[in-house]
Each structure stands twice: as C-alpha cells, then as structure tokens.
Write a structure and sequence with these properties.
With 503 residues, the protein is of the alpha+beta class. It has three domains: 201 residues, no CATH class; 89 residues, Zincin-like (2-Layer Sandwich), CATH 3.30.2010; 125 residues, Orthogonal Bundle (Neutral Protease, domain 2). It is built from eleven helices and 25 strands. Strand 9 and strand 10 form a beta hairpin. It is globular and about 60 Å long. Bound molecules: zinc ion.
Length: 503
C-alpha cells in the first residue's frame, strides 16, 4: 500500500543520511515486519497539523509481544564500548505549522549491573492529546509492535539484556507541537517554538527503585534523566534563529549539526524575533537570546550569568559544558536544562537596573542548575531538594562572592518574606501547592544549608561542596549520597538539624 512505501523510503533515507544504520537493517522486502496498528485505514503516516481528535484516539497500540533479539551478524555492534547512551536525532521543523518530524536512534548499553527483562522509555509529550505520532519502532533493526500508554513506552526483552550488552532502538515519529501555556516551556508562540523533552528517552534505572519513571504532580519537575550523549541534526527555515543546548555547525545543505555530550537532555528554541548577545569567560561562552526591546535587561542577565559560571566553577567544579544559552520566553518562571535555560519575560519587565531583582536572582538560580541537576543529577520527583536547595543556596553564594552587600536583602526578599514551613525532603507528590512546595523544598532547604555551614565551618562546607560536585558528576545522587559525602568532610554532629528539617 502506498503509505507503507512512503514510510519505508523515508526510513532508508535516514540511514543513508546519518550513516548510523544498525548492524542488521531489515531489507525492505521483509514480509514478517510487524506494523504498529494505527487502528484505522485513514490514518496518514505523518498526520498533518490539522489532525482531528478521532485520529489521535487511534494511537492505541496492540498488546506488546515480547521482543526476542536476533543474533547480531556484525562483529562489532555500534553500542560496543560506549560509556553512555547515544541519542542520534535528525529533526526537521515546519515553523509555520509547528510540526516536527524526527528520526531517532538510541544506542543503549546495559550498565545497571543486572540482566534487564524490559526497557522503559519516557515519551513525555504523549501525555497530551494530538501531539506525539509514532510511525515506526525498531530494535536492532527489527520492526516491533509495542505498547505506548500515555508517556510510558515499555519494551519487554526475552532473553534478558545481560549487563554490558547493548542494543539499538530506532524510532520515527512526529510532534504536532501545541500552543504554549504560560506554565509550560514546551509549545509554540506566534514568534517562538520551545522544544523540550521532544524525543523518547530511556528512563534511568536504580537498583533500589527500578525505572525512574514519573508523571507530573502539578508542582516541581517529574522527569529524571540519565547522563547521555547527543548528536543532533536540525533543519529549520533560514530566517529563524535557533538557540540550543550546544552550539551548532551549519552544513552546506542547510542542516545544522549539534553535539552535546555527557548531558541530561538536548533542547532548543526557534524564534523569528530573537536577538542575541554573547559574552565569553575562561569557563564558558554564554549567549543571551532575547526579544529585541530587551537589550539592556539581556545584557545585565548575561553579565551576571558569566559571573555566576565563574564563581560556581571555582567553588564547585569546572563548568561541565563549553557553552550556555539563555532564552527569553513567555513563562511564569525560569526553567533549567543543561546547556540552555529559559527565563520568563516578566522578569525582564521587572528589571530595575540593579542586581537586586528576580531577573538576576532567578537567572543565577538556573545557572546553578548546570551543576545541581545537570552535572550532578538527582531524582527530581521524589527528592527535589537534592538539586533545588543547592540551586537556591547557590544564589546566596553568588551574591556573597560578587556583591557582598546584598546577602541580607537576598535572605529577606527571596526566603524570609515567605515565612517558610515544611519538610525539606518533600516529594512533588506530597500534595503541596506551588508556594508550600517551594517553601519546604527550596526555602527551608536554604535554611538547612545555612545552618549546616555555620555548624561545620566554612572550610568543611566548601570542601564538602567540591567533593560532592566532583564525586557525583555525571551520576544521579540521592539524599543518602549527599550525607555520605558530608560525613567524610566533617566530624561535627548535625543530627539536630536533620530532626529539624527532614521528615
Ligand atoms: Zn530550581
């Protein structure tokens, strides 16, 4: 049938263009290829932006048969020798239709230490209707059926995937990007499209907790990312500005290639009215992307960001990437990804020409997440304090390092004013509203770190932060890890602080 031919031609084209075909691609004549059941004859391969609710409802797949890996004919599988998962993504954006067509390949190596009987992929944008359209899913070159339920894509493995064995996953899909809400980063505005959590990714696996797969609670962040490598090719129209997690290299054919290695995620924003300013320090090249009328505000944020990177590189560990993008958007808040942070327009509007305002303070907060979230990962859903308390306290460290005098202002404006209550180690599921959540996790977290610093002394506190940042770079740290590193840097008893702040 015509539709299948179109799909297959597209897929083969992917391999030719990217040069990353798996070791045993299935010939196009394979008759046993199983098709994902789109449930209706009228469904098109890549549904147009005007897809109807009826078509969306057909994205229910047949029950998943167990996947049986076929013997690998190639002597050297592509995943062999990899330290981290590799995501190769080739994406073409139709800006006017807010439609993203993607070909993805994941090379995964099982470093969990146990034999895995399944894989869990996070398809976060499939939580919403009319957005994610799966076209094709292959494991080691073999087309498989699978079950995608909301944002969870589970692939059973039989036989199990032994430790240090790997596989390749190829996915073709499209995103019909929705209009952006003010409380979410993802989505389109008239002049800007923010593309985050836009590809299926393998959830991290924890020996204690299993797959770290979570759904949103209404507060905080629910996604947990394993450190990975990203090779991304993007194509957008010439007249648009692209801000991304790393700096791209343009090829003659109009595609731009990005490498983002040892990172949690790759995100990008495309705008028709974004201007940019660049500042470089010895630690990073920082670009601020802003709406044209905000040049002064952007410059102030850029200067503070470069200063913050220098301070944190000295105090914690070297800045983990070569570049950083700061992107203005319509958002109630700021939002961190590694290599790129988003900042809400209202903060630029509030800017008062000093360093005592939300634009600088929250900008520095998002920069601090490059260490606490980016370099040192954590379970954002169950232990959000592990990154948020440290990102908040890093604001204090910025102010005391750069401009000593506003530290008192900062405590009052940022923390004390809210009269915070609650347990520092609350999860995003503890039924707290946004204010109660930030009061507990962020602000009481700040009080805890201030009391801890006073208790163990400046020298031990700084040694602890460096030890922790460096020991857990590229890993996912838990609350226990935090205290194990703390205990090897101090002999002081702080048990009363644990009783006071932690449930
Ligand atoms: Zn934060």
């Amino acid at each position: 049938m015509k539709r299948s031919l179109v799909i297959r031609g597209f897929f083969i084209g992917f391999f030719l263009l990217t040069g990353c075909a798996s070791q045993s691609p299935v010939p196009s004549s394979t008759a046993t290829e199983t098709r994902i059941n789109l449930g209706t004859e009228t469904a098109t391969a890549f549904l147009p932006a005007t897809s109807t609710a009826t078509e969306q409802a057909t994205l229910t797949f047949t029950p998943s048969p167990t996947f049986t890996p076929t013997p690998t004919p190639s002597p050297t599988p592509l995943w062999m020798g990899r330290e981290r998962p590799l995501y190769t993504l080739r994406a073409e954006l139709d800006f006017a239709k807010h439609y993203l067509s993607v070909e993805e390949e994941i090379l995964y190596i099982n470093q969990t230490g146990i034999a895995l009987d399944n894989l869990v992929l996070v398809v976060d944008q499939n939580r919403r209707s009319d957005c994610f359209y799966l076209e094709s899913l292959k494991i080691n070159g073999v087309q498989i059926e699978s079950s995608l339920k909301s944002s969870r894509l589970e692939i059973p493995l039989d036989p199990k995937l032994a430790p240090n064995e790997g596989l390749s996953i190829e996915i073709i899909y499209a995103l019909d990007i929705p209009a952006k809400r003010s409380d979410e980063v993802f989505g389109y505005l008239i002049s800007q499209i923010n593309t985050v959590d836009w590809y299926p990714f393998i959830a991290p696996y924890s020996a204690e907790k299993g797959w770290l797969f979570y759904t949103p609670s209404g507060v905080g962040e629910h996604l947990v990312y394993e450190i990975s490598d990203f090779d991304v090719s993007l194509k957008v129209s010439d007249n648009l500005v692209v801000a991304a997690s790393s700096e791209g290299e343009e090829r003659d054919d109009g595609w731009v290639e990005y490498e983002h290695h040892a990172a949690r995620a790759f995100v990008f924003s495309v705008g028709s009215n974004l201007s940019s300013q660049v500042e470089t320090s010895e630690n990073a090249r920082v670009t601020s992307f802003y709406y044209p009328e905000y040049e002064e505000e952007s410059a102030a944020l850029l200067e503070a960001s470069v200063q913050a990177i220098d301070v944190f590189s000295e105090r914690y560990s070297p800045f983990p990437y070569e570049s950083l993008s700061i992107v203005q958007t319509e958002l109630n808040n700021g939002m961190e990804y590694d290599g790129l942070v988003f900042m809400g327009r209202a903060f630029y509007d509030e800017y008062n020409g000093t360093i005592k305002n939300n634009l600088i303070m929250l900008g520095v907060h998002e920069i601090a997440h490059q260490w606490w979230f980016g370099s040192v990962g954590n379970d954002n859903a169950l232990e959000p304090w592990v990154d948020e308390a440290l990102a908040l306290y890093s604001e204090r460290i910025f102010y005391e390092s750069i401009y000593p005098y506003p530290v008192g202002w900062w405590w009052h404006f940022r923390v004390d004013w809210f009269k915070p209550k609650g347990w520092v180690n609350a999860s995003i599921y503890d039924a707290l509203d946004f204010r109660a959540y930030t009061n507990a996790v962020y602000y009481r977290g700040g009080y805890f770190l201030e009391d801890l610093r006073e208790r163990i002394g400046e020298k031990a506190f700084n040694a602890f932060l460096q030890d922790y940042a460096q020991s857990y770079a590229g890993k996912i740290a838990t609350s226990d890890d935090f205290f194990i590193v703390l205990d090897r840097n101090t002999d002081k008893d702080y048990s009363d602080l644990i009783t006071e702040y932690f449930k």
